[in-house]
Fold:
Amino acid sequence: MFSVDLISQEALEAVHQASLQVLGETGIMVKDEKAREAFEQAGAKVNHDRQIVKIPNGLVEKSIETAPFEVTLFGKERSRLDFGSGQVRFINGFGTVNIYEWQTKKKRKATKKDLIHLVRVVEQMDQATIVWPEIYPQDVPEKMIELHIAQAMVENTEKHCMLTCYNPDSIQNLIEIGKAACGGNLKSLQKKPIISIGICVTSPLVLDEVVAPSLVRCAETGLPIVLGSLAQAGATAPATLSGTLVTQNAELLGGLTLCQIVRPGNAFIWNHLGIYEHLNN
Structure:
C-alpha cells in the first residue's frame, strides 16, 4: 500500500485545535435558514440577522465521532472502494470549459460529446478509480448542466461517479439518475452508492445558498457527500500554509457538523483543494 504523510501528528492536532477555535469564536456564515435552524437546535449559537453560526467544540467533536471513519463507494460492476485506510487513490481532473484541438491548434467551447469521450477514456484507465466531471459542456442549458453531466457520466462508465451540484434544486434529479442506475431503488443506492455528490464551500468560512441546502438534502437522502474547500492562500485564506489549512479545516468541519446533525453516520469525504495566490502579480 502506498501512502503519503506530509504533516506530523502534533501539527495536525494544532491545526485541529485552531479550527475548533475559529468555529467557536468567529463562526461560519450559513446562508440557508433551514440549515441555521438545524445548527441552532443542535446547540450552536446562531445570529440569524448576520447569518453567523458559532459551533461549540463539543458539537464538532460529537459530529466527528458519528461520522464513519471509513467510507465505501461502489461502481456499477466494479469492486468496492474503501476510503480511510490511508491508501492513496487517483481521480481525473475537473472543470474544463474549453478544448484545445491539437489538430487545428485552436481553442473551442467544450461540448457534451467531449465529456462522453473523456469519460470513456477514464473508464479504461486503471489509475483512476473514480470519474469526476473533467469537462463542463457549454452546449447544454446552464440550468441543466449538472443533469447533462450526470447522464454522460453514469451512462458511459462502470466506475463510481462523483457528481457536482451548483443548484440545490438539482439534488433530487441527481438522486433519480443514481436510482435509475441501481434499478430504481433508493435503498439499493444507499446500500451501494454508485454516485456521490461533490460540493465546494465559499472561502473564507461560508456555506452559501447552494452549499448549505445541498448538504442538508444530500444528508437527508443518505448519499455520500464530498465537500471541498478551494481556499486560496494569500487571497481567501492566510498566506501561510498552516493558516490556509486551519481555514479549510474549519470550513469542512462546519459542513461535516451540519451533515451529521441532519443524519448521524452519513458518509462524508474531505476534499482539500487549496492553492496559492501569486502575490507579486
User: Anything to note?
Assistant: The chain has a mean pLDDT of 92. The CA atoms of residues 8 and 14 lie 10 Å apart. The longest helix spans residues 241-262. The radius of gyration is 19 Å.
